[in-house]
């Protein structure tokens, strides 16, 4: 069968592969690029296990012919780690907060969460927003709350120190005001 040359940037490195016309991106990543972190669950676009970032958008690689990724910038779960292989803040938050589940669903969940963090840079998405962003990633084994908490913790961590301080400021101001009011009330007695 004739093969087609496809070139893309994969986790920061330029790659060129020759693929059968309808070979799925999922299979090219796993077989031709030896990146087996991206998993196949349903193979039908339902479970999100195969999620990768294509030009910054989360996509089900089981539904996409690799030829459609020609010229694109791809990020797989392997590309989330820091240079040298250390865990990213998002990955670390999953470990610390118990958000890491099985090896089938977790890679896709991490990639979808990464897309959300890129979109919401500079603020912490609310519970509902995280749940919506992860709606295409299914796990039938356990709950999602620890995952949601881990994503929000990573977003908090990613905020610049000044923005974090500004977030705390209204609460701190309210506390100081409450203290002053209580003091005045004590004096008035
Ligand atoms: S394997 Fe692609 S969505 Fe389930
Ligand atoms: S599918 Fe991964 S823990 Fe349920």
Automatic annotation (TrEMBL):
<dbReference type="Pfam" id="PF00111">
    <property type="entry name" value="Fer2"/>
</dbReference>
<keyword id="KW-0411">Iron-sulfur</keyword>
<dbReference type="Pfam" id="PF01799">
    <property type="entry name" value="Fer2_2"/>
</dbReference>
<dbReference type="GO" id="GO:0046872">
    <property type="term" value="F:metal ion binding"/>
</dbReference>
<dbReference type="InterPro" id="IPR051452">
    <property type="entry name" value="Diverse_Oxidoreductases"/>
</dbReference>
<dbReference type="InterPro" id="IPR006058">
    <property type="entry name" value="2Fe2S_fd_BS"/>
</dbReference>
<feature type="region of interest" description="Disordered">
    <location>
        <begin position="163"/>
        <end position="189"/>
    </location>
</feature>
<protein>
    <submittedName>
        <fullName>(2Fe-2S)-binding protein</fullName>
    </submittedName>
</protein>
<keyword id="KW-0408">Iron</keyword>
<feature type="domain" description="2Fe-2S ferredoxin-type">
    <location>
        <begin position="4"/>
        <end position="80"/>
    </location>
</feature>
<feature type="compositionally biased region" description="Basic residues">
    <location>
        <begin position="164"/>
        <end position="189"/>
    </location>
</feature>
<keyword id="KW-0479">Metal-binding</keyword>
<dbReference type="InterPro" id="IPR002888">
    <property type="entry name" value="2Fe-2S-bd"/>
</dbReference>
<dbReference type="InterPro" id="IPR036010">
    <property type="entry name" value="2Fe-2S_ferredoxin-like_sf"/>
</dbReference>
<dbReference type="InterPro" id="IPR012675">
    <property type="entry name" value="Beta-grasp_dom_sf"/>
</dbReference>
<dbReference type="InterPro" id="IPR036884">
    <property type="entry name" value="2Fe-2S-bd_dom_sf"/>
</dbReference>
<dbReference type="GO" id="GO:0016491">
    <property type="term" value="F:oxidoreductase activity"/>
</dbReference>
<dbReference type="GO" id="GO:0051537">
    <property type="term" value="F:2 iron, 2 sulfur cluster binding"/>
</dbReference>
<keyword id="KW-0001">2Fe-2S</keyword>
<dbReference type="InterPro" id="IPR001041">
    <property type="entry name" value="2Fe-2S_ferredoxin-type"/>
</dbReference>
<keyword id="KW-0560">Oxidoreductase</keyword>
């Amino acid at each position: 069968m004739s093969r087609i040359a496809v070139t893309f940037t994969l986790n920061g490195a330029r790659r060129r592969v020759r693929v059968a016309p309808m070979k799925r991106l999922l299979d090219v990543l796993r077989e031709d690029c030896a990146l087996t972190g991206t998993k196949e669950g349903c193979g039908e676009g339902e479970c999100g296990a195969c999620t990768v970032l294509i030009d910054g958008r989360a996509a089900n690689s089981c539904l996409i012919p690799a030829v459609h990724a020609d010229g694109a910038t791809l990020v797989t779960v392997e590309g989330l780690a820091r240079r040298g292989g250390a865990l990213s803040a998002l990955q670390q938050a999953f470990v610390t907060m118990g958000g890491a589940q099985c090896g089938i669903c977790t890679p896709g969940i991490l990639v979808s969460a990464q897309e959300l963090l890129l979109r919401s840079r500079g603020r912490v998405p609310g519970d509902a927003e995280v749940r919506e962003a992860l709606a295409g990633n299914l796990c039938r084994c356990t709950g999602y709350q620890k995952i949601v908490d881990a994503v929000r913790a990573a977003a908090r961590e990613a905020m610049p120190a000044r923005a974090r301080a500004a977030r705390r400021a209204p609460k701190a101001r309210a506390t100081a005001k409450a203290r002053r009011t209580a003091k005045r009330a004590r004096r008035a007695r």
